[in-house]
Every structure is written in C-alpha cells, then in structure tokens.
Design goal:
Blueprint lengths: L1 E4 L9 E2 L3 H16 L5 H16 L13 H7 L3 H11 L8 H9 L2 H12 L11 H18 L8 E3 L9 E6 L8 E5 L5 E3 L14 E4 L8 E6 L4 E7 L8 H7 L1 H9 L3 E2 L10
Helix pairs in contact: 1-2, 1-8, 2-4, 2-7, 3-6, 4-7, 6-7
Length: 280
C-alpha cells in the first residue's frame, strides 16, 4: 500500500540501516534492563538471549548485491548455518522449559525448517509451530538483515510506504529520533531491522491525519503511545527517544504488550508486529 507523498521541507535519509552488531548489543541490553521487576521478566529475558545469539550468527564475510527477497532467502536455506549457531549459543542459556523446543528444532529435518521459514516470510504464521517460530524468524531475520545492508538502496520514490521498502515486511512500531534526526519519525522493520521515514501525525497504515487518537497509560506525553486511527481501525505504537533516550524500538514495544491489549479492547487492530510476538 502506498500513501501520501513525502514533503521535501528538509533533507533526510529516507532509509536507515544501522550496524547489526551495534543494534543487537543495544537491544539485548535494553531487554535485560526492562526485564528487571517486569511481570514479563522471563519472556523479556528470553528475547534478550535470542538477540544475543543473533550477534553470533552475523557473517563477517557476507556479500550480496541483489534486491532483498525474503521468500527467496528463506527457500534457499542459506540462513540454516546461522540457526545452528544460534541454537548452540542458546542451549545453555535459556530456561529449562525452553530447551526441549530448541532440541526439537535442532532435530527437525532441513526441509521442514525451510518450509517453516518460507511460511513465515510469506506471513503464513499459523502454519508454523508457535514454540519454534520465534527462533526460526530470528535466524531468518539475521540473514535478511545482512542482505538488506549489502544490497543497493531501492530507488527513492515520491511516496511513503506502509511496508518496508527493502524487504517488504511489516513495521514493529514508529520510532521518533533525536540528534541530527531530531523529531523525525521512522518505521522500524520487523524482519530486516531497517527503518524508513514517514511524516508524523498521520496513520502509518492508511495515511489519514484527521482521526487519530493516542493511547497510553501515563500522561499524553508518554514515551510509548499507541497511535490509533478511527478511519481504518488500525494502530501502531509510537516510541519516542525524544521523551526517553533509553528506548529501543523492538525491546520497548515488547515490554509494553499490555498497551496492545488496551488498544485491541478499544476495537483497534495492530498493523504490524514484534519479532518476538509473531501473529497467530
């Protein structure tokens, strides 16, 4: 889906591709910090361990020049060595109740792993065992993210997009930046961990700017809010580094799932997803 044109009021980078090592380091640290005293402490801690394992799956010699095709990458199986590395990293670090799932995943035939990864890449989340899906997604994500950083940037168009312009996946949330991108909003991709620019104060799904509500449990100036559209009925969180410089998009989105419950209870449907809380 394409929505309103991007204004040219000032120069900006339409797509951001943060270094993967730095991204995973910051995310794991933030997840561990958020886990302290949180009601979802074990869940956030597991996400931190998966993120830590993703670092080990980064290939220093990665090279690629093709446009990013998540389904092609999933079907090729090139991400399987990374999955093996991640399982080896995780097996001694996860809670005892998670280890049987890792053992089962390790023993799964390669063809079945590829079938599951292809289903995830094609958004057929119900086709994959939910106990295994986050691990498969994480390994596939590392491979797609490396491809996204090695491939040429797509040609800049005149319109903003609902889906990631590099890999085509859904956003996790909006991130409001600081520093040289002060106040700018970027959507963060759930698969390749790139970000793409979108102007603020309009629905990130349908582009409507006149019927937005901002839901939060704190003040209207909360760092994490759900931007809910009364036109299309969708919502996506806005996570602001202006209001809290310690936020990390994926980690803080995951730690605020209770806000998702509240938005859904108000009749809105989420237009993206978190890689550790896949749909279905």
């Amino acid at each position: 889906m394409s929505i309103h044109p991007i204004p040219e009021a000032r120069h900006f980078d339409p797509i951001l591709r943060e270094d993967l090592g730095a991204l995973y380091t910051a995310r794991a640290a933030r997840l561990r910090a958020l886990a302290e005293g949180h009601e979802l402490s074990a869940f956030l801690g597991l996400a931190a361990e998966i993120t830590f394992a993703q670092q080990a799956a980064i290939r220093a010699d990665y090279a690629g020049t093709e446009p990013v095709d998540a389904a092609r990458i999933a079907a090729s199986g090139c991400w399987l060595p990374g999955l093996e590395t991640m399982i080896a990293q995780l097996i001694g670090r996860v809670p005892e109740g998670v280890r049987p799932h890792l053992d089962r995943l390790a023993a799964l035939p390669e063809a079945d792993k590829i079938t599951a990864a292809l289903a995830l890449a094609e958004s057929r989340f119900d086709a994959v065992d939910p106990a295994l899906a986050p691990f498969i997604w994480a390994a596939l994500s590392v491979e797609v993210a490396q491809a996204a950083r090695a491939a040429p940037l797509p040609q800049k168009g005149d319109e903003e997009t609902t889906y990631c312009p590099i890999c085509g996946s859904h956003p996790v949330a909006s991130h409001i930046h600081t520093s040289e991108r002060q106040g700018m909003r970027y959507l963060h991709c759930a698969l390749c961990d790139c970000e793409w620019h979108m102007v603020r104060a309009k629905c990130s799904c349908c582009g409507d700017a006149g019927q937005l509500d901002y839901l939060s449990f704190d003040t209207p100036e909360a760092a994490i809010r759900a931007e809910a559209c009364n036109d299309c009925g969708g919502y996506l969180k806005v996570i602001s580094a202006e209001r809290d410089p310690d936020v990390e998009t994926v980690a803080d989105d995951l730690a605020s799932l209770v806000l998702d419950d509240a938005a859904v209870s108000e009749g809105f449907g989420r237009t993206g997803f978190n890689p550790f809380a896949l749909p279905g």
